[in-house]
Amino acid sequence: MSSSPLIDLRNLKFLLSQVFHFDEMFEWPAFAAQDAGMARQSIELAHQLAVERFLPHRQLADKQEPCVVNAKVRIPVEVGEALREYSDAGFMSMAVSAEDGGLGLPYALALICDGLFFGANISTTGYALLTRGAANLIATHGTDAQKQQYLPGLTSGRWFGTMCLSEPQAGSSLADIRTRAVLMDDGRYKLSGAKMWISGGEHEMAENIVHLVLAKIAGGPAGVKGISLFIVPRYRADANGQYCEANDVALAGLNHKLGQRGIVNTFLKFGERDDCVGELVGAPHQGLAQMFHMMNEARIGVGLSAIMQGYGGYLYSLNYARERKQGRHPDQRDPASAPLPLIAHADVRRMLLQQRAYVEGAYALALYAALLVDAKAHAPDSQRRLDAGSVLDLLTPIVKAWSADWTLKANELAIQILGGYGYTREYPVEQYYRDNRLNPIHEGANGIQALDLLGRKLGADGGRAYALLDAHMGASASEALLIEPLAGLGAQLNEYRTALAASLHAAQSGMAGGKLRETLANATPFASAFGHIVVAWMWLRQAIAAQRQLSRATQSDPAFLEGKIQTAKFFFAQELPAARHWLDLTARSDDSAFSMRDEWF
Amino acid sequence: MSSSPLIDLRNLKFLLSQVFHFDEMFEWPAFAAQDAGMARQSIELAHQLAVERFLPHRQLADKQEPCVVNAKVRIPVEVGEALREYSDAGFMSMAVSAEDGGLGLPYALALICDGLFFGANISTTGYALLTRGAANLIATHGTDAQKQQYLPGLTSGRWFGTMCLSEPQAGSSLADIRTRAVLMDDGRYKLSGAKMWISGGEHEMAENIVHLVLAKIAGGPAGVKGISLFIVPRYRADANGQYCEANDVALAGLNHKLGQRGIVNTFLKFGERDDCVGELVGAPHQGLAQMFHMMNEARIGVGLSAIMQGYGGYLYSLNYARERKQGRHPDQRDPASAPLPLIAHADVRRMLLQQRAYVEGAYALALYAALLVDAKAHAPDSQRRLDAGSVLDLLTPIVKAWSADWTLKANELAIQILGGYGYTREYPVEQYYRDNRLNPIHEGANGIQALDLLGRKLGADGGRAYALLDAHMGASASEALLIEPLAGLGAQLNEYRTALAASLHAAQSGMAGGKLRETLANATPFASAFGHIVVAWMWLRQAIAAQRQLSRATQSDPAFLEGKIQTAKFFFAQELPAARHWLDLTARSDDSAFSMRDEWF
Lengths: 601, 601
Prior knowledge:
The structure is a homodimer of 601-residue chains. By secondary structure, the first copy, chain A, is α+β, with helices and mostly antiparallel strands.
């Protein structure tokens, strides 16, 4: 692998070996059967498959979006073919534990591979990740019988999975779902209701579709405490164990989206003929907790999918800026002189640096979060497991929301660099922009992530997670203070840590004093600031690692390392200072949005 | 007119009567034949036509984008029908002077009407404004014979016009165009070359298409000093004066865009059969100056078109937020309580205020700029004409670039408020977002507007324009200081005026000291700051006018006026402070983008 349209492979290698010391994991008992070499091979295989089988139909599947023909959903054949190759190569089962029939690879490794597929084709990858999510849920919460019944189909990719949460009247507010489940004599449930925004909800690419459905058991508690989780297969087993009995799940319509058009998005009706049968997963009324177990990892996945759209746009616009010649320097008016490549213009370099700073900063953070997922589950030291879980909890909304917001900005800049060409569908950057626009919306809208961060996670457990994270950031800052070229960045991170702590303290005092709504009115700017500071920390860690490498005689690619350091400087100089104003809004509990009244609009 | 999907009509009335005293113009001799009542009627007529004839096919023309059938461009019939009604109602000629066969209405009035059409349907309106632009160019620079030949067709809407500037290899850099013109014996020219991104370049909606083409006369100076302007009709007159001799202009392809799909965008080849004949407009080598005369007004138009996309999205999402019920307050966990309308959530109000602040702030600025266009041309006092021209020159890049950047952000927020629904093509907000994404690119990319502002316009004429603008801003600040509820805003504007002056001084010293490239590397953040400050001034003027109204006993709509003041406060509290960091980058000539090297990426 030398160059890639998906990711800067030098960056991936640098993060794994120089910044995060990825191979350490393979010394843990949980991964005794794995080794670092196999991990590298999995990444290479994923990259090859992504470039050769997922990328080529990215634009095609966008253009020929799913449609209903003779009551069946038609999807370009390339999508199903790519997914079969994906399953055959073992990716459908890579993160499922060995005892449940999977490969039991580290989550971080799976996430790196996912990222490559996301970058190549976010829509086709969506089918795979929904299926893996369904398999993980059943593996974690299902009975042995359910595992035996559903996992082989899902992990082999013969069956696909979906997640059915939202309803037409309840998107962000799951407390208000209306789908109902009634216990049948045989212990199964009859379901009835409507589910909206169901990706992969109906198609002919798999022998079966296993819907995981949130519904309320009649007589259960109101709100989220009365939500249960059900397995609802499109085809259920008949008396002979053949899956050819059609369940009562009807396609009520397709949603036609701005982007991510390659993955069919459906409106489904359950039980219109009173014959939709599902199986309860785990105990009644535990549905939300079960789903959230998976949702947290899904949020990291959404963040990463956003990042990889940003990465693709960044690399494409970088290449374009090197090749396309246009204009001259402002002090170089001679029209006979040759036009310059776009990258020679400082404003274009600014737009490239901005993209790189967002994309590679967020990528480092997502990878760090993924490593925390593994450490939380498998680190030999119990304190480390606990700590990893705490910090992970805090970072998850940032990986999701910050990445989605700022890599969308990166996609906007990629279009800008290409100019008129970037605005056409003949070039790939506008599709990244359209595809990425969903990411601030789904898996918990970004505004809700911000409320969750400031209103719940930062205060949880006496602020323990925040104290841990802040200590980690402080350690990096201290390290940088001892490295002359980076001392200024270390000092700057410390300044922002202090400002963050002050702003958080003010917010928490406000909330404790009964001003919950007023304080949370500034949750979004606060979360942006928090994200900027955490990402600055990621850039500082990268700069430290790069500077260490540079000071050795044997480093092989000094230009790459210089670029890392310069991008870190750029982020600290041009991006991080924006956080000051956002923190200030929270600190002084600015009420300009809170005090606005409906009738004043 | 009570409510409108295009604009808050109370706002338009408020700006015209309370903020800008629009009617004053009708006392000028140039508009002696007009009156304020007629102006109001024109606006009402435009609004009605926009809503009834332009809006209904907005989504249709996006979906059924132009295609080539049997070598002809096919466009939905609704587009041509709407444009005929537009011409029949007199809008095609409204800003052309009476002596050239137009209505001679004030530019500001024309712009208000344009805005209504832009908001209803940016693509269909594009055909009209290109035609008007062509007519204005010929009216201003053409010979009497050319006026007689081309104006009647264009102003009546039987003929359409285009602007042919860009070429495949030269978008932002017109110095490098290659289209050539060779003098023929009869005084006309033969043209040859290729033109890219030509909106309205080929279709069957008009009897003729009049291309205005930039080309270089063989033997002329290199670069922009050798550019001339030509009239190249699709059909030229034969010996009998019949326009049925096909000129050698060939459709080489259609560009398929992210948005603005309803207006056909073409790649044209001139003179492939050596039979493309054009007429020179004015003197040789004056093409760029002639075009820029029109381009400056076109830039205001582009800014306004962006604003109106923002306005449509804002109003739609406001209405949605009032009707859609979802979620509860963070301290209100009882699931049995009724869900709240979205607008009850402070974070949603923030997103609405942000949209309103960008959209109505930019709208006020565009209207102010339009009034300067009229004052520059027609104010009775010569000093006022001169001053208006100076300030207009400075504000034009802001009206174009700032509006395009921030109303795109507004469109992003409108989608966010609608959530999953906003991401579908069943709702109108995603189309605003796609349509608007072109505006930072065309008519001079925003990065180039920033270079022009900092590198040229702010220093022109010893900084006279800036001094005038700053004095205007200072006067409003002083006024606010005397009005108790607004004194804080007045003081804050003064602070930012000071910071702006310091930053500008540092930049100009840098440039004078030979650091032109280094300084201009931060032109974009500087222009964003400049825009934020100017828009803050517009909000202050609106707040002052609203506060005055409120203090009277007879004001009719206090809620609207309170909303104006609250939005001004929101802009000062949540948006304006971002300018501080951008000014700081310029003041200390941050070199993080400038120092980045190509090989470090």
